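User: My collaborator sent over this chain with a note saying "see what the structure looks like." That's all I know about it. Can you take a look?
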Amino acid sequence: MHSNCTRVRVAIDVPCPPEPILNMDPELHIGHARTLLVGSLIAEELGLPFHVRLDGAHNGAFSHDVQILAPLSVIISRLGIKCDHVYWQPQEMPKGITFSKHFGDRAAEMERFLSVAADYNMNRIGVVVDDLMNHYPSLVVRGAEFVDPSMSVGTQANGANTTMRYAAHQALMSDMMEREWHEINLPLITMRDDKVSKSLSPILLWSFFQRFPGAWLRAFLLATVMEPTAPLKALKRKFSIDAISAHHYEWDWAVWDQYIRDCEA
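Assistant: Without extra context I'll predict from the sequence alone. Here is the result:
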């Protein structure tokens, strides 16, 4: 299924404002940490390099490089993640010569199509160009809401159409560019039917979890991916792509507290 892939890619959505605000630190959350961990294990299982792309505004010398790379480095180190490359998404429209290189006689057609399909939004153009031109072919690891609108729950339900439209545009552009699209989707982390691993106003921030030993966090995060309905029973299981569940993990503070007590014992 994934035999044609040459890398595994995870994207981190960096909620940066249009203008630099030096005292605004973008927060990473449990969803970032878990996707990074699982993405690295998928890459290891497939024998591929693992790349992390930072998506969002990149404001040169006044960007959030330090603010985002510091917690990202902590996650990578604490969870024992093997990462080959961390980089920002492309920040400009590719030049005509790039389209000619990839598409020959169809260059002008594909340049117009990309601009229109991505709504002339440079951030959207950048992420599509990265996956379908710069690093084709790649295996993308992201949440289940990108492939199933019913996976957008609670307060995120209003954004389901936007998410699905974005995913549909990617699929359409891959077809137009005659590219294969490879994707693995992870179950969401929810609390009372609300997604809590999200980039805007996240509930379960990484700063809460980073105080605990990496081995405890690693085991728990893998359990929420492989056995969301009974995470504590899966802690000793070895990760496998085939073991990724299609069910949400319902966060429960009591379960987490008991897990920590068991680890301490």
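A starting point for your reply to your collaborator: The radius of gyration is 19 Å.
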